TrEMBL record:
PROSITE patterns assigned: JMJC, JMJN
Gene name of this polypeptide: KDM4B
UniProt-listed PANTHER family: LYSINE-SPECIFIC DEMETHYLASE (PTHR10694), LYSINE-SPECIFIC DEMETHYLASE 4B-RELATED (PTHR10694:SF129)
SMART domains on file: JmjC (SM00558), JmjN (SM00545)
Taxonomic lineage of the native organism: Eukaryota, Metazoa, Ecdysozoa, Arthropoda, Hexapoda
Protein name: Putative lysine-specific demethylase 4B
Length: 231
């Protein structure tokens, strides 16, 4: 175990009531007042009253969504230093993607617990490149769901769309992402350093690695040192 240690903010978990949850900007302001932003990530567990999609997710055909440009994620490197190359593949429907993710080649391996699965991820990261359905414009949240609807969160970005007709894909409109075992979205900051809000509609749990904003420049310095051609 390394003797190196850094005092970092803890990642907070919030469990708002239904009334608290209804007002997105107000609740985000509350989270900030508690220092949640200092960690760079916070988890919000929605109240049971919130149902983003009343019809559920059992019928993938009903989603009627095509992933126009799935990417094959080829990872190279060793000993903790890796680079990812994305190779575009032919379009897939969500059902086809789900069936592919369930095949023996791509499915999540058997594991005892999260730590075991994490070890297998890093041990096998350069083998069997997964397919990622990223940056799919659209939403599967019910149109009449007014609370925490990513297409209209009640922030200033809504006015940019409504008043000026300016749509910025993935910023003031929703994006969908379809992942499988080992699909990875490499470390990055958002456009204009905005927050990113993500909701896991269905499927296996998702793992996040985060660097607190106060240490962001240090990460960039390390990345520049090891990957100078990318900077």
């Amino acid at each position: 175990m390394s003797s190196f240690s850094v005092d970092v903010p803890r990642i907070m978990v919030f469990r708002p009531t239904w009334e608290e949850f209804k007002n997105f900007p107000k609740y985000v302001a509350y989270m900030e007042s508690q220092g949640a932003h200092k960690a760079g990530l916070a988890k919000v567990v929605p109240p049971p009253e919130w149902v983003p999609r009343r019809s559920g997710y059992d019928d993938l055909d009903a989603l009627n969504i095509t992933i126009p440009a799935p990417i094959c994620q080829v990872v190279t490197g060793k000993q903790g230093l890796y680079q990812q190359i994305n190779i575009q593949k032919k379009p897939l429907t969500v059902k086809q993607f789900s069936e592919l993710a369930s095949t023996e080649r791509y499915q999540t391996p058997k594991h005892f617990d999260f730590e075991d699965l994490e070890r297998k991820y890093w041990k096998n990261i350069t083998y069997v490149a997964p397919i990622y359905g990223a940056d799919v414009s659209g939403s599967i949240t019910d149109v009449d769901q007014d609370s925490w609807n990513i297409n209209r969160l009640g922030t200033i970005l809504d006015f940019v769309n409504e008043d000026y007709g300016i749509q910025i894909d993935g910023v003031n409109t929703a994006y969908l992402y379809f992942g499988m075992w080992k699909t990875t979205f490499a470390w990055h900051t958002e456009d204009m350093d905005l927050y990113s809000i993500n909701y896991l509609h269905f499927g296996a749990p998702k793992t996040w690695y985060v660097v607190p904003p106060e240490h962001g420049r240090k990460l960039e310095k390390v990345a520049n040192q090891y990957f100078p051609a990318s900077y």
